[in-house]
């Protein structure tokens, strides 16, 4: 919940050296947005390991905001963090159905691998045709 809070709701990131807000909670609250971009709160670099255990404030402005270097950096850090979470399944995004499938049986993993194999074969053929 802390990662959600400090990114989706109250996320800040740098753009061209300036701090910009992207979190919905900030963008929907003029007062907190002005506060977040002032010199009053504490800023910390976005690190999911730290952010995930940092308490958040839901009754007043945040005393601390986490700033990502950019969206790509935040995405990579979140993906790496999520990969370390031990779970009894894996997730796979299916672009054809725009859905996420739970890979919790060998059959589901084999089916996903088979689909990827076909995709790679088609992409290799397309590349050969362009050469």
TrEMBL record:
GO terms under cellular component: axon; cytoplasm; perikaryon
UniProt-recorded Gene Ontology molecular function terms: iron ion binding; tyrosine 3-monooxygenase activity
UniProt-listed GO biological process terms: dopamine biosynthetic process from tyrosine
Domain Biopterin-dependent aromatic amino acid hydroxylase family profile: 1-131
InterPro entries in the cross-refs: ArAA_hydroxylase, ArAA_hydroxylase_sf, Aro-AA_hydroxylase_C_sf, Aromatic-AA_hydroxylase_C
Required co-factors: Fe(2+)
Cross-referenced Pfam families: Biopterin_H (PF00351)
Binding-site residues, Fe cation: 9
Keywords: Iron, Metal-binding, Monooxygenase, Oxidoreductase
Domain of life of the source: Eukaryota
Family: Belongs to the biopterin-dependent aromatic amino acid hydroxylase family.
Protein name (Swiss-Prot/TrEMBL): TY3H monooxygenase
Organism: Piprites chloris (Wing-barred manakin)
């Amino acid at each position: 919940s802390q990662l959600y809070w400090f990114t989706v709701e109250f996320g800040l990131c740098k753009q061209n050296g300036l701090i910009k807000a992207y979190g919905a909670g900030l963008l929907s609250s003029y007062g907190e947005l002005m506060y977040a971009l002032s010199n009053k709160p504490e800023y910390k670099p976005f690190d999911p390991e730290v952010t995930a255990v940092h308490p958040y404030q839901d009754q007043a402005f945040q005393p601390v905001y986490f700033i990502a270097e950019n969206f790509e950096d935040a995405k990579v850090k979140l993906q790496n963090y999520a990969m370390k979470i031990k779970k009894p399944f894996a997730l796979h995004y299916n672009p054809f159905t725009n859905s996420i499938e739970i890979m919790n049986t060998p059959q589901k993993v084999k089916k996903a691998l088979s689909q990827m194999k076909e995709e790679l074969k088609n992409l290799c053929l397309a590349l050969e045709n362009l050469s």
